[in-house]
Amino acid sequence: MLEVRRGQSERQRRGSETPCWAARYTFADICGHSPALVHARELARRAAQAECAVLLLGESGTGKELFAQAIHCASPQQAGPFVPIDCAAIPRDLLEAELFGYAPGAFSGASTAGKPGKFELAHGGTVFLDEIGEMPLEMQAKLLRVLQEHQVVRLGGLAPVLVDFTVIAATNRDVEAMASQGHFRRDLLYRLDVMRIPIPPLRERREDIRPLVEAYWAHKSRALGKEICLSEAALRMLERYSWPGNVREVVNIVERLLVSATAFVVEPEDLPLSLCQAQAEETSQESPWDLAAAVEKTERYTLEKALRQAQGNRQEAARLVGVSRASFYRKLQSYGLLHSLSQAAPRCPPWAVPSEPRGAPLGAHGAPPL
Fold first, then answer.
1. What are phi and psi of 70, to 5 degrees?
2. How do residues 104-161 score in pLDDT, each as one tens digit?
3. Quick check: is 357 in a domain?
4. Model's pTM, two decimal places?
5. What is the CATH number of the domain that holds 46?
6. Which residues form the domain of 7?
7. Which of 3, 174, 262, 306 sits in a 20 to 30 Å window from 188, CA-based?
């Protein structure tokens, strides 16, 4: 009977639903070069080759699903389906039917042909359990049995169906603390936590902000058909921002700036007011009485504004701020602005930050999802 059920499930898996369960993003789509991100990427590559269970830990918006898709695409099961399951989005009373499927006539309104669950659809591929910390305790016990026995029984069914898949789980919660408090099964945690990969938030890897903004700016400007530049002063403000929404917030800000831009160059005053206010509050909390730092920021901003006003002409910019050309040159050098905006031109490519190295290129599939 087990073989018969397996044959039936194989025919169902070859149905019209299967092709839509596919991962599109690879490790090439993970943009950044900070040590923390490089380490996370290396752990993910090892996990992909080992085909072991993976637990992705990180705040909301850090790119956990991007990592999950990249692991699947680098694994020996890359030709199989990639089935994401948002454990927080499925209502509790529908979760069992979604995961395990149901037999014909299992409940009122059920399809007469029955329906395979997500675990069956993931046979030969990968299941991505997003927000695993939100899964009810009673469902955790059933998930543990699936991972141990490699078989599922549909809701209202009798015969088990063999399944073989790799599981990747993700959460933004402290599952260790939840297990200690009895809100998460520790035996399930042992099953899922074979390879633990922490994904650091953006505020802990600020060197990744510039390449991230660059990648999404280039991708979105192409999609919108706009040639708009982001000034160096605006970019530096973005680099100093703490990004509580992480990469998802970067995508939002970039899209908002491009859609709402009315000038060819986006300046600091064009940035969202909420971002500027948040950054001002952070700065005031860090050093409320640091006069030297305040003077330095004001002077730097004035120099950049004069260069923009003079379209890169240093002699004219020096005249605007009321200093000699030699003094103006020395100040540019001290602030690292010697080449910034000094070659202003009437037109520039969608991304123009000539004084800084470019970040990692986009992958073959464009900007990754979050």
1. -65, -40
2. 877 777 777 888 999 999 999 999 999 999 999 999 999 999 999 999 999 888 889 9
3. no
4. 0.73
5. 3.40.50.300
6. 2-200
7. 3
